[in-house]
Design brief:
With 366 residues, this protein is mainly α. Helices cover 73% and strands 1% of the residues. It is globular and about 60 Å long. The relative contact order is 0.20. This is Ionic transporter y4hA.
């Protein structure tokens, strides 16, 4: 990595994000979101800077991960993305308008975007270029087994509990489920990075060890810029929530659309990397990035949001509607068939994209 200079965007966007937050914090400047032409321009600038800062944060996390190796590299990447996600969800949930379903909608959107949209694009892109692509069935089955359990106990089971009427968990139930998901994710990380690392590496390739090509100077700069990027996203999350609320109200979109926006913002950097890997005939890496992000979202975001909701005495709705549960179950059944052979083609990718299209359509026309 040190052979290439640090991209300018990796320090420009965090700097712009900090400057934008400072500017909006000075009342006399009058900079902020309003439903005027100037306010719309501010919203566009905010979204561009926010997206750029998220990309910068992921870039710096990858630089550090390359240097420190596994399992700490994977954990660092996961924590960086999760901090951003929790900040965005909490800022909208704690806004002027209560959105108790946002965490549920975001997690569900992540699963549907990843398991249908991203997986479908990766398989289709790879199939068009290479006809067929191979991957490790054992590793994919591990991903799916953990993902199915996590999604079921966080998104479906709350509808069928007796202690409290659905779609809620009682405090005791929410605490138990949060601990269970964290434990599942921790054991999964241990399995992926230490115990059975070979399950998640394509045949004929080898997992890179800690990289010695990252200089200590670059490592220090990336560590500082990573902290700045994460802090900037957290500080701008409140401004983002105002833009999302106003945008949804103006276009008349359902509340679930906010969850999709947050999910897209969080998944964009990893999605670009996954599609690039598929184009490079490394579908295994695409699967690792895609399904791994789903596990991290449920395993870490739900417990973090649960703690925030309990501490601030906020309502947290987790159970999905019957329609969404059908889509979730169909997604898991389809994923088991897709990843059950170790070989993919364009038809698998197209089927996943059709399910993703159904998901998006049903958000607006339920």
């Amino acid at each position: 990595m040190s052979a290439h200079p640090m991209p300018r965007s990796s320090w420009i966007f965090p700097t712009l994000a900090v400057l934008l937050f400072i500017a909006t914090s000075i009342p006399s400047l009058g900079i902020g979101f309003t439903e005027t032409t100037a306010g719309i321009v501010f919203a566009v600038v905010l979204l561009v800077i926010l997206f750029g800062t998220v990309f910068a944060a992921v870039h710096h996390a990858e630089v550090i991960a390359h240097k420190i190796g596994e399992p700490f590299g994977t954990l660092l990447l996961t924590l960086a993305v999760t901090i951003i996600e929790v900040a965005l969800i909490a800022s909208i949930m704690l806004g002027d308008k209560a959105v108790p379903t946002l965490a549920r909608d975001t997690v569900f959107a992540v699963v549907m975007i990843v398991c249908n949209g991203l997986v479908g694009i990766c398989i289709l892109v790879g199939g068009l270029r290479y006809r067929e692509q191979d991957f490790q069935v054992t590793g994919s089955n591990i991903y799916l087994s953990v993902l199915i359990v996590m999604a079921t106990i966080t998104l479906i089971l709350p509808n069928y509990t007796l202690t409290t009427p659905g779609p809620f968990y009682s405090n005791a139930q929410l605490a138990f489920v949060s601990v269970a998901t964290i434990m599942l994710y921790a054991v999964f990380l241990y399995t992926q990075t230490i115990r059975h690392q070979d399950y998640f590496v394509a045949d004929g390739s080898s997992e890179g060890a800690a990289g010695g090509h990252v200089s200590n100077r670059l490592l220090a700069i990336s560590a500082i810029l990573l902290l700045v990027s994460l802090l900037a996203v957290v500080l701008l999350a409140k401004k983002f929530s105002l833009v999302v609320d106003a945008g949804i109200e103006r276009i008349g979109a359902p509340e679930a659309f906010a969850g999709i926006l947050v999910a897209l913002l969080i998944l964009l950097p990893e999605s670009v990397a996954a599609i690039s890997a598929a184009r490079g005939n490394d579908l295994q890496k695409s699967i690792n990035l895609a399904l791994g992000s789903s596990l991290a979202t449920i395993g870490l975001t739900i417990p973090a949001v649960a703690v925030a909701a309990y501490a601030l005495d906020k309502e947290l709705v987790l159970g999905l509607s019957a329609q969404k549960m059908v889509l979730l179950v169909m997604t898991f059944v389809l994923s088991m068939l897709t990843f059950g052979t170790g070989r993919t083609n364009i038809l698998f990718g197209l089927v996943h994209l059709v399910v993703f299209a159904v998901f998006i359509f049903m958000v607006f026309v339920p």
